[in-house]
Amino acid sequence: MNKSCHDCLNNICLKKNNIFQSYSKFNTLDWLSNIQSPEYNKYNIIEVKFKNDRKDFFINQKEILLTKGDIITVESKSGIGYDIGIVSVIGELVKLQIRNKNVNSNTFKKIYRKSTYKEISIWKSFKEKESLTLLQAKNIVKNLNLSMKICDVEYQGDGDKATFYYTAENRVDFRNLIKKLALFLQTRIEMRQIGYRQEAAKIGGIGSCGRELCCSTWLKNFKSVSTNSARYQQLSINVQKLTGQCSKLKCCLNYELDAYLSAIKDFPDFNNSKIYTKKGIAKCMKIDIFKKKMWFSYVNSPNTWFIIEVKKIKEILEKNKKNQISPPLEELSTINNTIQKTELTFKD
């Protein structure tokens, strides 16, 4: 019987061949690792991670003793051949992961065994071919003049199937592409379309903040982001600054959005907030959400702004509703010290 070597059991084989890097993304912190499950109620579902952001759940029917980081041989999705992955989560935390991802428990595939030395060698040999296969597939797509972009390729553990991930604006007829790839690689081919955010997660990179992309490290669910998220946070609508490497609006625009929406409830409608003074109509130019202040300027003198607290603006708006005109902003500044004058100058 072929057994795993000492290096394989400690993931040293993977590190030596730079394979472990693509399997180290989306690591899950097992915060229940110190809580031992009762012997009679051990959870036999295991979370296994594959290349990049792909993870799946498998049932450990044979009750094989597994720990995090073990290389195991599992049933493939198609049921043909086998696949190889790395154990990422075991125990009670898997229950929460399944509940979070809303996975149907009737679809779990089986865990066959801990991978043997021969299986790991075959797996490593196909992993080393992926970069060259990706380059050759891109050349074939270019020669066929297809409007699609192949961004990643993943071999099954036994090399029986190669999955190509691609992005495209419209539907693509890639039947000729599959024929050429199957003839060239001598294996089964699967084409899987993904979104631009998923593409960035697979490729990875460094964001404008100087850190590794959230989607390629920890972000699991991609929520829709609109320009309203930037407007609520008083950000200028600059497409170059608001878009990420996926050419979509940055996911981080949603991180603090709830705090802004909660704080903005205390403000009047600043888009239509106009106050009527003896000197003329003044309109809102800018707001500071967390300091609860608003900048107002006269319609006839837009370059001079006055900082007014939200509480005072509400009082003025209530007076305006009763047809009471408030004093000029300059006079209000002498009555209430919370109003300051700011001169803005513009150069050609």
Task: Summarize the structure in words.
- By secondary structure, the chain is α+β, with helices and mostly antiparallel strands.
- The chain has four domains: 6-116, no CATH class; 123-197, 2-Layer Sandwich (GMP Synthetase, Chain A, domain 3); 223-266, no CATH class; 267-343, no CATH class.
- It is built from eleven helices and 13 strands.
- It has a five-stranded mixed β-barrel. Strands 9-10-11-12-13 form a five-stranded antiparallel β-sheet, with helices on one face. A three-stranded mixed β-sheet has the order 6-7-8, with helices on both faces.
- Mean pLDDT is 82; it is low at 334-339.
Write the layout of secondary structure elements.
Layout: H1 6-9, H2 12-16, E1 45-49, E2 55-59, E3 71-75, E4 82-89, H3 93-101, E5 109-114, H4 117-144, E6 149-155, E7 161-167, H5 175-185, E8 188-193, H6 196-203, H7 227-232, H8 239-242, H9 257-263, E9 274-277, E10 280-288, E11 293-298, E12 301-309, H10 310-321, H11 329-335, E13 340-343
Parallel strand pairs: 2-5, 7-8
Antiparallel strand pairs: 1-2, 1-4, 3-4, 3-5, 6-7, 9-10, 10-11, 11-12, 12-13
Helix pairs in contact: 4-5
